[in-house]
Amino acid sequence: MTTSDAPCAVADRLPVRPDLAAVEPYGAPQLDVPVRLNTNETAEPPPPGFLPAVAERIVSLELNRYPDRPHRALREALAARLGLDAEQVWAANGSNEILLQLLQAYGGPERRVAYVRPGYSMYPELCRTALTPAVEVDLDDDFALTADVVTTIAATDPDLVLVPSPNNPVGTPVGRDAVRQLHARTRALVVVDEAYVEFGDADASVLPLLDELTRLVVVRTFSKAFRLAGLRLGYLAAADWVVQDVQKVRLPYHLDAVKQVTGLVALEQEEAFLGHRQRVADERDRVAAALRQLPGVQVWPSAANFLLLRTGVDDLFARLLERGVLVRDFSRRPRLVGCVRVTIGTADENDAFLTALRDVLA
Ligand SMILES: *Cc1c(COP(=O)(O)O)cnc(C)c1O
Fold it and tell me: Considering the domain boundaries, does residue 281 fall inside one?
């Protein structure tokens, strides 16, 4: 046998799975520009007491040992906060991993997913990874999940339904009645992805419906209102059998010990973590009002930390970027032609965005 530092000739490569051959790795651009408003993170860092408290707890971890596989302490803390049993809660590395585990457990080539459009851009990616056929169902002209949309979803006879609430990228929440209808008119696992729910009204969540709807799964994350996008932690709340089923597909020790304890400390400091929500809501409403003053700009009502807007400017994304402002470009997506999504940042960042936009529109 010989070894060589020379790169393999192309002919020697093993081709990737055929359905992945033309795929570009998913992800919004991570560009080093002054104003980054493209991935719906919170602008403020975690509260000042957080990392010192984490450091104090980390020093006593036994990192030579594997972590607690079912991450009981974290699940108990989450369950106590949600008014559920620990057997109804399950955490993973971001809510994206939660969604993937649900697709691995309940999807597959013989199953079918239905998700709404516009909706979260990761749903098609996750379905493809999990080899699960998917149907996209259009929301109505106002991007609402109406009774007609439910009828269309039900007609596809899905095994899983994926619904973001509030919707990403639109910002509107889905009403409890629509979720009840989805559950009543399908035999599917109804997965409501509440990544932004903490930014809305206290009664916006469908969590209280867990008592009533046996196939409801509520998915949440620490990445958005909890200001911990760098931690990669998300969770689900559902019936206990869902939690048992996802354990059939999770990797052993998928949630590392450092992350488990960091999540626990975050929950202990929940009030300090979530204290910024009113500021975000006020800023969102201020930016939305300013956008509505601009001629030719349409903006959707939002209960999240971002706004979807449509302008007549063809290359708005590039022209804002030239001015140092990074937003999320949806302008070439079906149903979102001419749209960009802007995350609510600090007041200064939001002003920089508005100034750049006015400049482009002038
Ligand atoms: C941001 C976002 C998530 C969060 O994913 P994580 O993996 O938890 O960071 C999930 N769903 C939607 C709709 C999102 O916008």
Answer: yes
Residue in this structure with the two tokens 């408003």, named with its chain if needed: 37
* Ligand 1 atom 2 nearest Cα: 195
> Are 309 and 262 in the same domain?
no
Token pair 């559920």 in the structure block, residue: 84
**What CATH number has the domain bearing residue 318?**
3.90.1150.10
* Nearest residue (CA) to ligand 1, atom 1: 195
Tokens of 259: 């992350």
For residues 304 and 174, is the Cβ–Cβ distance under 8 A? Answer: no
Do 224 and 344 lie in one domain? The reply is no
Q: Whose CA is nearest to atom 12 of ligand 1?
A: 195
Nearest ligand 1 atom, CA 93: 7
pLDDT in tens, the chain (362 residues): 445 555 556 678 999 999 999 999 998 888 999 999 999 999 999 999 999 999 999 999 999 999 999 999 999 999 999 999 999 999 999 999 999 999 999 999 999 999 999 999 999 999 999 999 999 999 999 999 999 999 999 999 999 999 999 999 999 999 999 999 999 999 999 999 999 999 988 889 999 999 999 999 999 999 999 999 999 999 999 999 999 999 999 999 999 999 999 999 999 999 999 989 999 999 999 999 999 999 999 999 999 999 999 999 989 999 999 999 999 999 999 999 999 999 999 999 999 999 999 999 99
Best residue among 98, 116, 122, 163 to mutate for probing ligand 1's pocket (most ligand atoms within 8 Å of CB) is: 122
Domain that holds residue 294: 28-46+275-361
DSSP state at residue 230: T
Q: Is the CB of 195 under 6 A from ligand 1?
A: yes
DSSP 8-state symbol, 132? -
